[in-house]
Protein 1
Amino acid sequence: MKSLTVSDADFLALSGLKHFCFCRRRWALVHIEQQWQENALTVSGHLMHERVHDENFTESRGSVLLSRGMPVRSQKLRITGACDLVELHRDENGIAICGRSGTWRVFPVEYKHGEPDERGADAMQLCAQALCLEEMLAVEIPEGAIYYGKIHRRVSVAFRAELRQQTIQKIEEMHRLFARGCTPKAKWTKACKSCSLVEVCQPLLTKRVSASVYVQRMLEEDGS
């Protein structure tokens, strides 16, 4: 019997989960149509991640090991990416790490340029990283943290069952949309003003077209 394998083409970028939660059309423009434009917010975010990401960086701070830019993937969820920072805390209930004595607790940390996200997209992105790490290391990770540059502090994130399920559902939706290769129609919201793809997306154009269709229908109904 042939064994089922998953090719790299079947994997989606873990980082796309934030785009998907922000706007499905934005995600599709980037990950299906391969379109991208920078603005001040995205540039600032890239600069922060460039400082954080260094796959060759490992630092020991007492009982904590710091590993930056750690590549992660999940065969089960078919996602791949990199963690900004994974902290390994010495813990008697932790796991063994190759090349290190003792046992360690895994604690992922994501870096964001702005302020805490009320919609929960950042928490889901961090949770997806934890799910990858759990699968790779055969360990349970109960919590992590997000560092927000605007408020200069960390916000703790507990990977509870509800958050895990929401994250998995969003990833499954991403796969379904990607398989269809279909970009959702534009829908104007206040968030469009700060989106780097607003010129590509043209949400106001769609809004105007919809309004004209509405007026035309009203005139036709009046004349009938």
Note: The chain has two domains: 8-183, 185-224.
Protein 2
Amino acid sequence: MGSPPQLTAEQRQAALAKAAQSRKRRSEIKALIKSGSLTIDDVLHLAQDEDAVAKMRVKELLESLTGVGKIRAVSLMDRLNISPTRRIQGLGKHQILSLIHI
């Protein structure tokens, strides 16, 4: 495995700012899901346009739902044949359809 690329101070700052913005956006999405303002279907549509949402883990998405904790999220993912480390952007069409119909 090679060494990471050497970044200039400006590139490093830009990368850190982009990462912070992505984490903030994912946090906002999870809060909206928790409050019931967004559904899984809404999030899947947002993921098509927003890279930060597309890179959210499916487990985090499910844990944001009311009444779904860590154990139930893992159980749902097992039942739907979704890897525990899968991100939204990596879901197949059958997995997307099964998630929408939870």
Note: The longest helix spans residues 9-35.
Protein 3
Amino acid sequence: MGMSVGSAAEDDVMVEMNTTPLIDVMLVLLIMFIITIPVQTHAVKMNMPVNSNNPPPPTPPEIVRIDVDFDGAITWNGELVTSRGDLQARLYRTGLMPDQPEVHLRPNKLVTYKHVAMVMAEAQRLGVTKIGIVGNEQFMN
């Protein structure tokens, strides 16, 4: 009985690519990238005021309170504003002041947005720069 030492199939060239070293290199690179990437911090950059040795202003700023009622009626520091022209004249005088007072706009919970937007647009158009909406906690519910 004879024994065959080799076959013709063993002399053929292997066509498949050996991917084991490739996978090893890719895993090492992945680990290197994970280690070297800095931790991302999610922060918002803000320009905060710098501490100064100046004393605070001696008097608190003047505040103008504008209320917009549910039907669109506007009051200026508790006094009813009768027309849009009257509101424009008051805002114009406020805008001309060198040290403008703070304008606190307080809309009623039931007022439509167009009345509040009209007051804000007029204030911006007439040069009022210190304006803010107060009383937002009433809109939470």
Note: The mean pLDDT is 84.
Protein 4
Amino acid sequence: MPEVLMLDEPLSFWGGVDPATGRIVDRRHPQCRERVTGRVLVMPSGRGSSSSSTVLAECVRAGTAPAAILLRHADEILALGALVAEELYGRTLPVAVLPDEDYGELRTGDEVDPGCLG
């Protein structure tokens, strides 16, 4: 099962994640240099540009996407990126909003089965 990467702050995929490597490249982000690839990305919400959906879809195409994205607050831009990736590449990326009590229980390194999300 993939492990959790818990982010302290929201993340924009546009300018924040390198789709070629799956690394967080936003130098202002607390988890800069962490790799999202194959991990269950847990964060409060997405941040920023509508272009994040394109970058997320590109991560899916390149094989550098997270295994799943779990959010505290809904983010339509990330959901759109996952839907586009499924339509274009036939690859599913679960994106789900967690209740506060479940969100607060997750920590970096925990293991989560993304199959029960989609």
Note: Residues 1 and 57 are 22 Å apart (CA to CA).
